[in-house]
């Protein structure tokens, strides 16, 4: 997916293969299988071109990241605490980007509801969040 997002144009398996082979040895069939899996999962669409397919991303990398964050947040039994733990893992640069995003959306002048404030104040960040910050672990992308 990284190549498809970076190039922002329809790509063939051969193009992705040749680019990946600059970094490591990889078989054509491996790339073809991954591209087919991404198509089956709805991450890319494909159009036949001769005997090959051209693959195009269905959404942007930003939309994918947003969907991951939304999915993780919405499955929490305490969304406010999950957000606090997430914000606690952010670097200063990421917090500044978050502030900018909130300003763009236009919700920075709304006060949080009292139950959310209480839930946040009563819930410490989980130890796993601290470990992830130290190691720099991130969720995997489709196709990785």
Automatic annotation (TrEMBL):
InterPro entries: BlaI_family, WH-like_DNA-bd_sf, WH_DNA-bd_sf. Keywords: DNA-binding, Transcription, Transcription regulation. Residues 104-120 have a biased composition (Basic and acidic residues). The keyword Ligase does not apply. Belongs to the BlaI transcriptional regulatory family. This is CopY family transcriptional repressor. Coiled coil: none annotated. Gene3D superfamilies: 6.10.140.850, Winged helix-like DNA-binding domain superfamily/Winged helix DNA-binding domain (1.10.10.10). The keyword Transport does not apply. SUPFAM superfamilies: Winged helix' DNA-binding domain. The lineage of its organism: Bacteria, Bacillati, Actinomycetota, Actinomycetes, Kitasatosporales. Residues 104-144 are annotated as: Disordered. Pfam families: Penicillinase_R.
